[in-house]
Amino acid sequence: MNKTLKSITSKRLFLPVFCLALVLLINLFTRPDFFSIEIRDGILYGFLIDIINRASELVILAVGMTLVVSASAGTDISVGAIMAVSAAVCCNVLTGGERAATAYSNPLILGFLAAVLVGTVIGCFNGVLVAKLNIQPMVATLIMFTAGRGIAQLITDGQITYVRVESYKTLGSSFPGFPVPAPFIVSLVVVLLTAVLLKKTALGMYIQSVGINKKASSLTGIKAVLIIFLTYAYCGFCSGLSGLIASSRIYSADANNIGLNMELDAILAVAIGGNSLGGGRFSIAGSVIGAYTIQALTTTLYAMHVSSDQIPVYKAVVVVVIVTLQSPGFARWRKALAQKKAGRVTGKEAA
Amino acid sequence: MKHKRTLNQTSFLLLITIVLFFVMYGVGCILFKDQGFAKTQNFLNLFVSNAGLIVISIGMTVVMITGGIDISVGSFVAMGCMMLAWMMEKAGIGAVPAVLAVLATGVVFGFVQGFLVSYMDIQPFIVTLAGMFFARGMTAIISKDMISISNEMFMAWAKMKIYLPVGGHLNKKGVMIYPYVYPTVVIALILLVLAFIMLKYTKFGRSIYAVGGNEQSALMMGLNVRQVKLKAYMLNGFLCGVGSVLFCLNTLGGFVEQAKGFEMDAIASAVIGGTLLTGGVGNVVGTLFGVLIKAVIEAFITFQGTLSSWWTRITIAALLCFFIVLQSVLSMLKKKK
Amino acid sequence: MEKDSVLEMRHIYKTFPGVKALQDVDFTLQKGEIHALMGENGAGKSTLIKVLTGVEEFEAGEIRMEGNEQPIINRSPQEAQKHGISTVYQEINLCPNLTVAENLFIGREPRKGGMIDWKTMNKRAADLLADLDIFADVTKTIDNYSIAIQQMIAIARAVDMSAKVLILDEPTSSLDDNEVEKLFRLMRRLKSEGTGIIFVTHFLEQVYEVCDKITVLRNGRLIGRFTTAELPRVQLVAKMMGKDFDDLAAIKQTGEKEASYKEEDIVIKAVGLGRKGYIKPFDLVIHKGEVVGFTGLLGSGRSETVRVLYGAEKTDEGELFVKGKKLAAKHPIHSMYEGMAYLPEDRKNEGIIADLSVRENLIIALQAKRGMFHLLSRKQQEEFTDKYIDMLQIKTASRETPIKSLSGGNQQKVIIGRWLLTNPDFLILDEPTRGIDVGTKTEIQKLVVKLAQEGMAVVFISSEIEEMLRTCGRMVVMRDGSKVGELCGEEMSQSTIMSTIAGGQ
User: Fold this and answer.
1) Tens of pLDDT along B73-120?
2) Residue C114: its chain B contacts at CB < 8 A?
3) In the complex, which subunits touch A with 3 or more CB pairs below 8 angstroms?
4) Which CATH number fits domain A11-35+46-308: 2.30.29, 1.10.20, 3.40.50, 1.10.3470?
5) Relative orientation angle of helices B225-251 and B203-213, to the nearest 10 degrees
6) Which of A68, A96, C27, C426 is the most core-located residue (most Cβ within 10 A)?
7) What is the complex's ipTM, to 2 decimals?
């Protein structure tokens, strides 16, 4: 009995699946309508659909963040700010520098490309600081964490920039003819592409290898600096893409609010996904489930009338609990406790 | 010869900062001569508007010397201000107990963060990132709407002017106007001096440097490394408490978005002032100049009038980036030696 | 207690999981004596020091100090210090960012009115250093000074805390001759004042220059306590390496390896290759089908030499030719492209990638050589893995078991497999047999000989001379960071090797 329980809990995806199930279970009891799904105008509606829809940006971020954490044992805290910059760039390109527009000044694709490119470039900037200059990841990304929103404000002149064109809303709502939300499809594509990239090239193995033992990896011919750099660049790319979706949802660029608090969610998704923040082995699937868990949690909290600016309190507590459980200090404490217990047992036997 | 160079590295960074400040101030005096940039009062205003930041940067410096960091300070200030405002305006608590409560909260907050960092061995960044979101969220839980402070005693503290006996000038009506500061500046400077003495002349102060210089060595020399770190975070928490009170005396209210990006200002001030991110090196005088540089940039933007205030943030980030890269390059050069 | 002895350790036992680190070890230190503690890797030197200074607990035995009726047990370095035992480690435990004076007095700063009295502290520090003839400005931070001075300052700190027993753990490994001389002067000075000094080092010359007594450990056992003047160097080397003189000769068997090599068989040619402060310039030629052994005591530069060859450390002088082509590797991958492979000495930190599976650990080097976009198919990976698990008889639960859960010997086999898979022309094995069971050791030796017969050039490093004699056709002898000789054919016997290692008598 105990053994089977242990073998279940030691499975890689146990933590994320358990957390997700827990959140869903709570909803099952508190709100019976939680799981109902209906179709209106050929589009799916319902709480679950809402969660899957809203989680899309987070899923994409979590994918990038997972790789960063794995390779560098650090986190990229600039992802939210990058989203704001990419949204600002996209809207600014599409409006041609105006603060609101009802028609595109430039082709839609140009705006998209510019946004994703800017995200990637910022990611590269972070990558150079971390991989090449050996600066602690969080310090390096702190620069963009704060400067990013300032840059976004400058691009948009400190105002919200609106793109009031129907086709701009597509990415954030639904593709014609598809019943599932467009953001979900985009996130699915990103996850699948990443999975293919990691499976069909040696990149996945390299990233883990560098994260576990940088020295040994270098000696076996892996260019550790390059690998770490690439993960940051990719994380920047993911952030840029997320920024696009977030912007499309509100068909505007709001430098203050796009991607707000997303960095914590992304880190939390990775941690709940069963990935160690100390780097090494990773599971994209875990992070994705982690991301849905967090969105489910967020949606649940909203439903319980917790406002968006209060939610971070609960998430912060979850983060602290999870990292404490993973921490060396906690392991030490548990070991000491086990020893004490063992000592007591042998003491009894001796008596 | 090679040894001389390493000696100068720390003082070199500090020197850059001090020179940078005076150059910037000088440039300001010339550029905005007509608007009276050079007036004594405007110089003092650099301190007046940044008293809270000075205190918080002191705390940041202490934590960074141990090799840690605290990115929760901005959110804590927001929470502290909101607590003050809520206690005095909504709960009818007096100004003195309210202030004491905020200071106590700071210490407790510092204790929890310090405990997780030192006794649980969790990266300071992760711990304080969680702290950052926690404090900001708490602010919203206390009140989603802005609360303005009208408590008499608190207002009296805020409006109390302390005039300097010198440096006055005659105004148009022929009355002698002396430059003044608020008590916040005095408190900030007293704490600066105390912190300086603490870091230089007490066993605790030196232990902080030892822990940041080489944790292993400090342990072998018989220092209680974990305890030193915990105390450093608690001290930082206390200073955050004081800092938020001073900040509140300036803004006279609490709202959720307050002091956003403040952590960046504090970290930047410390780093620009010569504190090494890797720990072990730094002092509060440098940090003061770091704060003043940020203040001058702000003054520039105010006097210039047309630039957006976002430029402050971006310039600070650029400066921080420059100094971080400089530190990293210097340490790489040193390792190669 | 013996007369005049300041420290006595009796019947000390210590086991680590799977290893008997110390078995019935005695150690006696006299007042005013410099006592060398010697032994090769795994002999138990550092464990003995750790037990003495309270870093590790010991299971049985007792430690007595002069003046204490009761045996003492140290639970921490601080406690040891209270008993008058101070240690200066190889990685100096000082804070680089603090001043010399602070490093001397931290934790016990002189104070006035609760505040640190810098004036008194600096004065006392200056006096202390002057008294010991150490020249340093006490107000400067310690990173302004060379390792040698730092070492002496660490000693001064220990002495000032009234050390009766001073342990110097490989203090000279990064000092130049001049600095060593200064350190010795200080040691003699302390000796004359009655301090007992335990000196852990690999440098034979230094032992004979400064030590009165020598205690030799091997495989966790005490070999003996000797008076330096009465123990010839060759004898000392023999005692450390574990062979008595007379019973060898028999193992030699490498007649056919004396075959002369042709110019086109040269795989590796190093001309004046070196790196300042790391390894002195050396020349070396290695041929196809040849097993070359690098021998010398620990710290003699044998590992450093192969790291430079492989490109794990950059060189700053000389040239390296691989199969006639000049190679200046910026990254190990460039050496790998030229057919090199390197099994590092430190298996745990530089060899295995702990959390990855046996399969991944096996194929990773070949994968790196192929490039990121030419992923070996899962089927290929499994075939390779099965092949090597079978060929090297690796004991593992499955291909997907994390390598960290394998035993040391099997981990080592995986790493060897990793490199064989890249089909190298030149294979460097640095201590492939350390810390693994006897059966596996023999297997590895056989494998090395077989690989050479198939035409591979191999460098083989081992602390056990016997192993090298059995496998190598030629031996390069290292001492104190430089190549001091090359032996082959008839010259290759334990006695000549040991006397070459020991150096001029």
Assistant:
1) 999 999 999 999 999 999 999 999 999 999 999 999 999 999 999 999
2) 202
3) B, C
4) 1.10.3470
5) 110
6) A68
7) 0.85
